[in-house]
Amino acid sequence: MKFNVQSKVLYSQASAVSKVINSKNPMPILNNFLLELKGNVLSITASDIENTLTGRVPVMEAEGEGRFCVDARRLTELLKSMPDIGITFEIDDASLAIQVTYNNGAGKFDFIGIVGDEYPTPQVSTNENAVQFTAPTNQILSGIDNTIFAVGNDTLRPQMMGIYWDIMDDGITFVATDTRKLVRYRNSVSAPGVTTSCIMPTKPAQVLKNVLPRDTDVRISIDDKRALLETAEITFSCQLLKGAFPNYNRVVPENNPYTMTVDTNSFLSALRRVSVFGDQGQNQVKLRITHNEVAVKAVDNNYCTRAIENVACDFDKDEMIIGFSAPYVMEIFSTIPTSEVVVSLSDPSRPGVFRPSEQKDNTDLLMILMPMNVTEF
User: Fold this and answer.
1) pTM given for the model
2) If the chain, 377 residues long, is cut into consecutive pieces of 10 residues, what is the mean pLDDT of each piece?
3) If 0-12 CB within 10 Å is exposed, 13-18 middle and 19+ buried, where does residue 362 land?
4) N or C: which end of the chain has fewer CB within 10 A?
5) What Rg value do the Cα atoms of the chain yield, rounded?
6) Which residues on adjacent β-strands are paired with residue 316?
7) CA end-to-end span of the chain
């Protein structure tokens, strides 16, 4: 086999595909890429058995067809350090000796491949009963971006260790929760026209966030065990989590009558500074909210540290004192994209509801955070 390919184009796909590979694999061959040449297209596949990602790269001057494995780290590091130039691969079909050259032989690299048939055949398809639809990649990426920070990590609640996709005729709702916080993001930019649901684990969600191209369409197929996503550039198959996701609509407070509107950056900056002086074990921040100002306070009695800052706000109640986890509030304010955040409250013992001041067209973003017990400010 022989083919020529642009080094940076190949590096871009190899780097993306390598995100599936675990740092420690039960099978040494999973440390390799599976490369397959068909016509003028080179496919690069990586797998950890549960997740399989294939990227496709156009090549030139292709001779022959076949499949072989190469060490993923070595190939990626080589491509990373190469200039953006055409490189030539020559593979001896019998011995799988691989020679990579560029600039008319000025650079020459030799290594040995592994028989492609030894690579575990990745399961990249779903069954015939799968639900299929097409969606814009921006719709999927927005769902992951807005919810992934709220995914739980408690192995006793495996259903919460992923993002729940509630797919309806008119849109998709993405939900994540760790019992302390919950994010619900509805997106009806595109209507799937089908009804189903699944729980995508954190790792495949992170992979999609990094490799799924924007501003194109993705074909999605979901059955009771796997999800398959395909674009012109990639094919990604992942194993889904089993079990029933909690009824997220039941935990959304129906009556939070008091509303605080605050500048996103001002409040987030103050919170970052104040939290430095708080108890790093509890990570609690106290808020005293009045008509036009919210006082942000953190205390660590063990080290005699204390910090307080005042931030302008608009609140339609005389006063309320409530406590939250500082890291959770910072995650919420960092995720909400608008210049102001609207916080709906009921009393210090009930969850707060965080929303952007303006929802984007055909979207609805809502975040819920449980309070922490506060006896005094």
Assistant:
1) 0.92
2) 94 94 89 94 94 94 93 94 92 92 84 89 75 96 97 92 96 96 96 95 95 94 93 94 92 92 97 94 94 95 93 93 96 96 95 96 96 87
3) middle
4) C
5) 25
6) none
7) 73
